[in-house]
Amino acid sequence: MAEMIDVARSSVQTWQADQMGHMNVQFYMDHATQGLAALGVYLGLGPRYIDAERARLFARDHHVRFLREQRPGAPFTIRAGVIGATDFGLRVYMEMSNTVSGEVAATFTADVELMDEDTHEAKPLTLRAKKAVKAIAVELPAYAAPRGLEIYEPRTPPTLKEAEAMKLFFTWQGEVQASQCDGQGFLVTRHFMGIVSDSIPNLLGQTRGDDRSQNSKVGGAALEYRFHYHRFPRVGDVLTLRSGLKEVGPKTYTWCHWLFDLETGNAVGTAEAVAIALDLEARKAIPIPDEMRERLEKLVVSGLSV
At 222, is the secondary structure helix, strand, or coil? Predict the structure, then answer.
C-alpha cells in the first residue's frame, strides 16, 4: 500500500472552541473539506479543472471518529489516501494528527463523488484521477474502523411528517445564510455538522433537563459520527432538525438527527452520533447515573437510522 499525502495543516483557534474548551466538531469537518480540495489537486481535479468543467469533489457520506480533544493552540496536519474508487466516486480516508506528537486526533472516512457545481449531478471520474488514485491507495486503519456505530446502507430518506409522527424532539430551526454557503449558494459540509452541534443544548434540555449555561463542570463530547448528505440546501432555504435517542449505554448515548427542508418536508441530511458526558475538570467521561439511565431508556425511539 502507498503512503498518505499531506492535504491540510493548520492550528486550533480560540474562536473554534466551544463551551467544552475544545475544537467544535464542525471545524473538524471544515478542515477535512479543505483537505479534500487539496486531494483534488493531486488527482488533477483542482481549481483549473473546476473552472473549466464546473465540477468538483463533494462528500456524500462521512464516518468520523474523534480520538483526542484538540484544544486552542494545538498544531495539526491532515493526511489522506484513497481506499477505493468507482467510475463516479472515491472512498477517501483522512486522519488529523498533532503535528508535534504525531498522535491521531480524528479520522474521516468519506464516500466522495465528482459532481457538477451547479446541479450536484454526478459526473464520471477522469482517467487522470483514476490513474493518480493508484499511487495513494491505502487500507483503513483499525483505529478508524466503526466502534460505537454500525455502517449500513442509508434508509429511504425520512420525511418531516414521519419525524413528527415518531414524536422526535424539535431541536433546531433556521434560514440558510449566504455566509454558510459555497460560491454556488449551497450549504457547505461544515454547517451540516454545525447545525447538529448547535442543537445539542436544546436536545439535552428536553431530554435531561440540563442547561449547560448553568453548569461549568459538566459538558459533553462526541466520540463518533455518521453523516449522510441527501441533498444540498441553498441560501434562503429554511431548515428544521428533529432528533431522537437511539440507544443508551453505561457511558454513551447514541442520538439520531434528521434535518429537513421546512417548506417541502424532505430530508437534506441524516446523522447518528455517539456521545459522552464529560467532566470538564478531569477531562474524562462520566458514567450515566442509574436513575438518569432509566429515564433516558424510556425516551429511546425504535426505527431510527441514517
Answer: strand
Alpha-carbon distance 306 to 303, whole Å? Answer: 10
Give the CATH number of domain 1-145: 3.10.129.10
Burial of 257 (0-12, 13-18, 19+ CB in 10 A): buried
Q: Residue 192: which H helix or E strand, with range?
A: helix 189-208
User: Quick one: cell of 6?
Assistant: 499531506
- Quick one: cell of 194? 454545525
Rounded distance, CA 165 to CA 172, Å?
18
Distance CA 16, CA 25 (A): 9
Domain with CATH 3.10.129.10 in the chain: 1-145, 157-306
Whole-model pTM: value is: 0.95
Which pLDDT tens digit goes with each residue over 209-254? 777 677 667 777 889 999 999 999 999 999 999 999 999 988 898 9
- Closest to 249 measured CA to CA, from 300, 213, 283, 214: 300
Q: Tens digits of per-residue pLDDT, 1-32?
A: 578 999 999 999 999 998 888 999 999 999 99
What are the cell numbers at 116? 457538477
Grid cell of 294 as nine digits: 432509566
Instruction: Kindly report the backbone phi and psi dihedral angles of residue 163, in degrees, each rounded to the nearest multiple of 5, phi listed first.
Output: -60, -40
CA distances for 264 relative to 64, 216, 261, 300, angstroms: 29, 39, 6, 27
CA–CA separation, 207 vs 102, rounded Å?
A: 38
Domain 157-306 CATH (choose: 3.30.70.2120, 2.170.130.30, 3.10.129.10, 3.40.720.10): 3.10.129.10
C-alpha distances (whole Å) from 122 to each of 89, 90, 95, 186, 235 are: 8, 12, 26, 16, 21
Q: Residue 38 — φ and ψ, nearest 5°?
A: -70, -35
